[in-house]
Write a structure and sequence with these properties.
By secondary structure, the chain is of the alpha+beta class. Helix content is 52%, strand content 15%. Strands 1-5-6-4 form a 4-stranded antiparallel beta sheet, with helices on one face. The chain has a two-stranded parallel sheet with strand order 2-3. It is extended. The mean pLDDT is 83.
Length: 227
């Protein structure tokens, strides 16, 4: 009822080419606030059974414990930025190079270098031998299982231009913030990092618990509306 009155009032107050007076603005504001208050009163609170309440309490306790453990483990870690797909793969990895190769030639490109490390000196030598003359290389510490990323969004935008990123987004690659990363190596254009197995396990478990908590709460709301 208040909603209909609000629409009627708005129609009277807002006229094309005629600005509202201070009194009219105050009247409209009052009507909007009254409408919002009425909607809040009509919201149904979920009816949670004792059994569901116990489940939610246990889940909440586990989530809190996991978050506290993550906080301790994440000391000394950093947030890095990486362009990757849903599988965690970068656009310059193996078969994914086909997506980068399909990029229109007229797009502005970022400044890229080829990273080499002591992890595999044979591969590094091969890269330098096969690369076009003048290809820049950078030494960076890198071990098996590590990934490449950027220390900031600004650094990422220099390596992959915004035009490149826009194209790669159509192929499923997006710039993402990677939290709790242990930086292994660093060069002028990028960083190498890994995430400890304990942190990965806790992050996965916490996500599963949070999703379960949300599901149980949503079910309670649905049952309340069905009554």
């Amino acid at each position: 009822m208040i909603g209909k009155a609000l629409i009627k009032l708005s129609g009277r107050l807002i006229k094309k080419g005629k600005p509202m007076t201070a009194a009219q603005k105050a009247a409209l504001k009052k009507a909007i606030q009254a409408s919002a208050k009425a909607r809040t009163k009509n919201v149904i609170s979920p009816v949670i059974s004792p059994r569901r309440a116990r489940k939610l309490a246990v889940l909440n306790q586990k989530i809190t414990l996991n978050k506290n453990a993550l906080k301790k483990l994440s000391k000394g870690t950093k947030t890095v930025y990486r362009i990757e797909n849903i599988k965690g793969e970068g656009p310059l990895m193996g078969k994914n190079l086909k997506h980068y190769a399909a990029m229109p030639l007229n797009l502005k490109r970022g400044y890229k270098v080829a990273p080499v490390s002591d992890y595999n000196r044979t591969r590094a030598a091969m890269l330098k031998a096969l690369a076009p003359k003048g290809t820049p290389f950078e030494e960076i510490k890198f071990n098996r299982g590590d990934k490449f990323a950027f220390k900031s969004v600004s650094q990422a935008n220099k390596y992959f231009s915004k035009q490149e990123q826009a194209f790669l987004k159509t192929r499923g690659f997006e710039l993402k913030a990677i939290k709790n990363a242990t930086v292994v190596g660093q060069s002028s254009t990028q960083v190498s990092y890994n995430i400890s197995s304990d942190i990965q396990r806790l992050q996965k478990e916490t996500t599963r618990l949070v999703n379960k908590y949300k599901k149980l709460t949503l079910e309670a709301y649905k049952k309340s509306y069905e009554k």
